Amino acid sequence: MKYYLAIDIGASSGRHIVGWKEDGAVKTEEVYRFPNGTELLDGHLTWNIDSLLTHVKQGIIRAKDRFGPIESLSIDTWGVDYVLLRGDEEVRPCYAYRDSRTEAVIPLVHEKISFTRLYRHTGIQFQPFNTIYQLYADKEAGRLEDVTDFLLMPEYLMYKLCGVMSHEYTNATTGGMVNAETGEYDPAILSALGLPAHLFQKLQQPGTVIGEYEGIKCALCATHDTGSAVEGIPMEEDQPYISSGTWSLLGVKTKNPIINAASELANWSNEGGVGYNRYQKNIMGMWLVNRLRSELCPEKPFGEIVAEAEASRFEETVNANVPAFMAPESMKAAFDAALAMTPQTPGDYFRCAYRSLALCYMNACQELQHNTGKHYEKLYIVGGGAKNDFLNRLTEEAIGKKVIALPIEATALGNLKIQMEADK
């Protein structure tokens, strides 16, 4: 029996899941789970990369203790964030995508290369945290001086394991600098912004084995977690999906990128998949609910929260995709400011949040059908949000499509699938 290890790290937690093939199916077991989250340092949101690496290694030890020899491992994380290196030394701190440091430089970037031109080259939606804006903020702050290497988060963690630097395609596409036609970093964009060309190496495809860690092969999965999640969804045909986590990512597989004025206007993205394009959009996700819980009832189990939301009769909703909900000091205050009536109970707030998310999904589905010219019958939901029957019912009512909720670790399954296929 061969055992493979998927290390799947999200913005709020990470998990180590061992997978193996048995009776023609992939079996899995979670062997380690750890918390993750941003830390406030000198007024900025940052990642504790030392803690992340420690947890990565501890989980590998746990996997070996439980299953013995591991054939290969791979790491996926959220997109856009990275670590800069000067030789073997990290440039600290490692900023998190929700930090506000890019706000001042976005207009400067667009003075040098308009967003419309960027979109025509990359097909990547505008987000204030895109890697392109983060790197330009680093350039303006002098943080790129003498930098020798630039590694996205999963690439950095695997480098610290096996000593080999890699640059994986699916995650690189999330940052707004990869040409949609060539599948490589776009030299015209790098030149326009004066970013050091040596940092942007040739991109490698999922399935590439890059090195070893303590006798375990280190392979590239689709290191952007949504890229792996889409690989892990057992779809009968290409139908829309939502990868529901801190963010909700709604999209569909397409043969080629869809880059046109309608897609740009509606802020749709064309991100790399494993042999296909992921036409998708970042919309609000469980961030709303998680932040409300941390303020209103941090010790309350989610089952009770959902029950209170179902029992509530609060009917107002908010536009959950506006900037006010992205990183407020108080999520409760953000809801209060956006609503005509103030919710009276925690259940009112959560009902409002869940109904607002369902409306987000409805609007995105309508845009998707308009932009692709196709009508879809189903919507697959995977990730943490798939476990929420109340939200799934609200979504099905809002979008008028059959919701297929798969409360599976789709990201880990996709990660494992790519490793297993690479080992054939």
| CATH architecture label name of the largest domain | 2-Layer Sandwich
| Count of helical stretches | 15
Structural class comes to alpha+beta
Instruction: Quickly count the domains.
Output: 2
Find the CATH topology of the largest domain: Nucleotidyltransferase, domain 5
**Rg, please?**
21 Å
Number of distinct beta strands: 18
Low-confidence stretches: none
Mean pLDDT: 96
Query: What is the CATH superfamily classification of the largest domain?
Result: ATPase, nucleotide binding domain
Strand content: 15-25%
Termini separation comes to: 14 Å
- Major sheet: order of its strands? 3-2-1-6-12-11
Percent helix, as a range, is 25-40%
Q: Main β-sheet, in a few words? A: 6 strands, mixed
Shape verdict: globular
CATH class of the largest domain: Alpha Beta
What does it look like?
This protein is globular. The chain has helices at about 50-65, 105-110, 115-120, 130-140, 155-160, 170-175, 185-195, 225-230, 260-265, 285-295, 300-310, 330-340, 345-370, 390-400, 410-420; strands spanning about 5-10, 15-20, 25-35, 40, 45, 70-75, 80-85, 90, 95, 150, 210-215, 215-220, 240-245, 245-255, 270, 275-285, 380-385, 400-405. The chain has two domains: about 5-225, Nucleotidyltransferase, domain 5; about 230-410, ATPase, nucleotide binding domain (Nucleotidyltransferase, domain 5). It is an alpha+beta fold. The strands form four sheets. Strands 3-2-1-6-12-11 form a six-stranded mixed β-sheet. Strands 15-16-14-13-17-18 form a six-stranded mixed β-sheet, with helices on both faces. The two termini are about 15 Å apart. It is about 40% helix and about 25% strand.
